[in-house]
Amino acid sequence: MLSNIDIEDIKRLAHKAGDAIMSIYEKDFSIEYKDDSSPLTQADIEANNIICNYLQKNYPEIPILSEESKQIPYVDRKNWEYYWCVDPIDGTKEFIKKNGEFTVNIALIHKNNPVLGVVYAPVLDLMYYAKEKEGAFRNGERLPIQREDNSYTIVASKSHMSNETQHYIDKIATTKKKKLVSMGSSLKICLVADGSADIYPRFAPTMEWDTAAAHAIVRQSKKKILEYNSSEEIHYNKNDLLNPWFIVK
User: Which of 17, 62, 65, 176 is most buried, by the most CB atoms less than 10 A from its CB?
Assistant: First the structure.
């Protein structure tokens, strides 16, 4: 199945969704709120339609789990071998703030693990992508990238900095000077994957679609997303789609 999917095809799809998002981003737009109080914009809906319609047409044998589509009961998805995990806009709060730190996330999951991922930040013109056994890349450059900065760089959420996260950061023991970088969306995970940051602790809620695409990039960069206080990597298609606390390193 994986061998039949061209990563360039999924990159083009993410770019197309990004173009649709940008056409709304550059205008005034309305904001609605879902049952969980998270924001929703027309850009989320349009990008979701573009991605899901394309995947359904071109990969009809692979089911789709998307944040902005009707959720599928675990009894119906527990035996999926492959499926697409989609977040049409990861970082809707950053989209609303117009700070550019949001992404289009498209991942392919195989037996609970991400084996292909595309993370596209249209405002920043950043495209991260990875496919199992083919490596991970940022705008065509293979990851990880050598970093000149000798600090110990910690990346944290711009919108969800919890007390637990701050406590963990304060306790990190290193002989290097600590440097804290705040970033929105799954770009935080990608900064560890590309070598710009050393660690990203996340002790606040995330869903599977928030991390799946970037996790594929992390894995192909020879790094990991571990459950907090565990040697186990986080996995996907759980009964509860909420991720545990985790550390990217």
Answer: 17
CATH of the domain at 224: 3.40.190.80
Contact in structure between 248 and 211 (CB atoms under 8 Å): no
Closest CA to 237 of 116, 104, 63, 28: 63
Tokens describing residue 216: 């594929």
The closest of 218, 23, 231, 40 to 117, measured between CA atoms, is 218
Rounded CA-CA distance 3/69 in Å is 27
Residue-wise pLDDT for 208-245, tens only, equals 999 999 999 999 999 999 999 999 999 999 999 999 99
* Structure-token match 């606040």, residue found: 204
Which domain does 138 fall in, by range? 2-142
Q: Are 228 and 244 in contact (CB under 8 A)?
A: yes
Q: Residue 199: which residues within 8 A CB-CB, separation 6 or more?
A: 152, 153, 154, 155, 172, 192, 247, 248, 249
Q: Which CATH number fits the domain that encloses residue 102?
A: 3.30.540.10
- The DSSP string of 4-34 is G--HHHHHHHHHHHHHHHHHHHTS---EEE-
